[in-house]
Specification:
Blueprint lengths: L1 H18 L5 E11 L8 E2 L10 E9 L5 E8 L8 H12 L3 E5 L7 H7 L5 E6 L2 H9 L5 H7 L1 E4 L8 E6 L1 H31 L7 H15 L5 E6 L2 E6 L1 H8 L4 E6 L8 H6 L1
Helix pairs in contact: 6-7
Length: 279
């Protein structure tokens, strides 16, 4: 590793000369990791993707060419505001490798609407991100997104007032749809199993009956753990608990199973719909 570190800059420069075409975009992504030790000079207390509390973390960024081939990697000090340092890091990479444009790739948590709004002030910096479920639901409700067409074609491009100046690429993956259905069914069954246990406890506690507040607390813990509150109706009274599934919300969510929407600032002549999804 010491040998590589001493030659890192030269190796990255050679890779850039081989794979980066003048005027083509580079893709950049960033992540964080936690550190269990106490000797890493880059580790700082702060948030990390693994959500490990009480540990230090560091941030790593990787630059690739438009086909995803790695060009350079850089580690920096970890801290809660790591995403705010991305534009300055990207600016250094653009200058170093003479890139005309860098396209930042991030997940739903990293590139939120707020972060994307702040990126617009940096010329030469684009992005590829994904819409959250609520935003996809709104597109479907307003008929901006044709769910049936996407399910048939597997890939469809559109625009929306929700994301002005951006392209939206909707994708459908049957395997993802099956997995979401399986997971929702398993969570609903687990939720009903835990709620049934509370019903039995309520019926059993005749000498010291459970009050409405106590039952509500137990039910709340179950629904919070499974994230299934949106799919269940619950009626709580003193010494009584009733619950049922909400088929309308389950069907509404199931209609979007396997569907995700990628958003990008890049025009089609620079990045096709297929390359946007690959990115």
């Amino acid at each position: 590793m010491d040998w590589l570190l001493a030659r890192q800059a030269r190796i990255a420069q050679k890779l850039a000369q081989r794979h980066v075409i003048a005027g083509s975009p580079g893709l950049y992504d960033v992540t964080s990791s936690y550190d269990e030790g106490s000797t890493c000079p880059l580790a700082r207390f702060g948030s990390n993707r693994d959500k490990k509390q009480g540990t230090t973390s560091m941030v790593s960024g990787v630059l690739t060419d438009r086909n995803g081939r790695p060009i350079a990697v850089e580690a920096s000090r970890g801290h809660p505001a790591a995403p705010t340092t991305i534009p300055s890091q990207v600016a250094k990479l653009r200058t170093r490798f003479r890139l005309e444009r860098v396209v930042l790739v991030g997940d739903r948590g990293t590139l939120t609407h707020t972060h994307i709004d702040s990126l617009t002030q940096y010329p030469g910096l684009g992005w590829i991100a994904a819409l959250r479920f609520e935003a996809i639901r709104k597109l479907a409700d307003t008929h901006t997104l044709d769910v049936a067409l996407v399910a048939h074609e597997r890939l469809a491009e559109s625009t929306s007032a929700q994301c002005p100046g951006e392209r939206l690429v909707a994708c459908y993956t049957p395997l993802v749809a099956q997995e979401r259905q399986r997971k929702r069914h398993a969570l609903l069954e687990a939720t009903e199993h835990d709620l049934a246990a509370i019903v039995r406890e309520v019926a059993r506690r005749t000498k010291t009956p459970l009050g409405q507040a106590e039952i509500g607390k137990k039910v709340g813990q179950v629904l919070h753990h499974s994230h299934m509150a949106k799919h269940c109706t619950v009626q709580i009274e003193d010494k009584q608990l009733c619950y049922a599934r909400r088929p309308e919300t389950i069907q509404r969510e199931a209609a979007l199973d396997g569907l995700y929407v990628i958003r990008t600032s890049e025009p089609a002549e620079r990045l096709s719909a297929e390359d946007t999804v690959r990115g």
